[in-house]
Here is the input.
Amino acid sequence: MEDVVVIGGGAGGLNAALTLCRVRRRVLVVDSGEPRNAPAERVHGFVSRDGTPPAELLAAGRAEVERHGGRFADGEVRTIRRRDGVFAVELADRVVSARRVVVATGLRDELPGVPGLRERWGRDVLHCPFCHGYEVRDQPLGVMGGLRASVHQALLLRQLSDDVVIFAEEVDDRDRARLAARGVRIVRAAIAGLDVEDDALRGVRLADGTVVARSALFVPAPPVPNDALLAGLGCERDGDGLVRVDGNGLTSVPGVWAVGNVVDPRAQVVVAAGAGAKAAIAVNADLMEEELVEERAA
Here is the structure.
């Protein structure tokens, strides 16, 4: 019987596992090995780790968890079932019993169907100005319009470059005025493809064949949380459709915590790591209270 099974080996899951291992909890981390930031060359905005390759950061985190007694199982969790206060976590080759569960399964980015976007994703087709904007500062930047955060991103990117273009077939009067005030140029056309040369983005191609020279394109793709396991447990959702958690990551299902992008699509790596630590402290307190009841009854 594990004290805690942590599902997901990204920053949130690893920090939860590390915090629990440091108070001598028996912890198993199940990791599919498919982190959201795998295509990116560097992690940014994480104090003391800015510029670290994602794989290097995760490898260091795994080593720290293992050094403190944590264990890993590579693969995916198929289902989680709860019975009599114990969780049965089903892997491909076995079922693991756990007293508590922390879900840190992240999200996937739902990219528009424009040829070339996926291949350049995390390199010079980007999603977050805070994560990647500094690295392309003072370069000609583009923003794909028609997405929920497009106008906001274009306005924000003007802090990083004097040459920002938003590609949008339709822009309402209010947004047009805001973009003009900020000095963002509007190209009223949809993006048909990318111009790539020597493994670098050189421009954005429009439907009529015109190429607008750009060094990076920001695509605020809709995030889709990987929350099927939480849905299977019956976890409640909030008004935005995200699994509802309290300030420590506790879901509506007793014994189940969720941290990172699976419940907070905007969480950067450093935020997810902090959420993992908070959840771990709450998980340990919950286990301790249960143990006190058992010890008094003995």
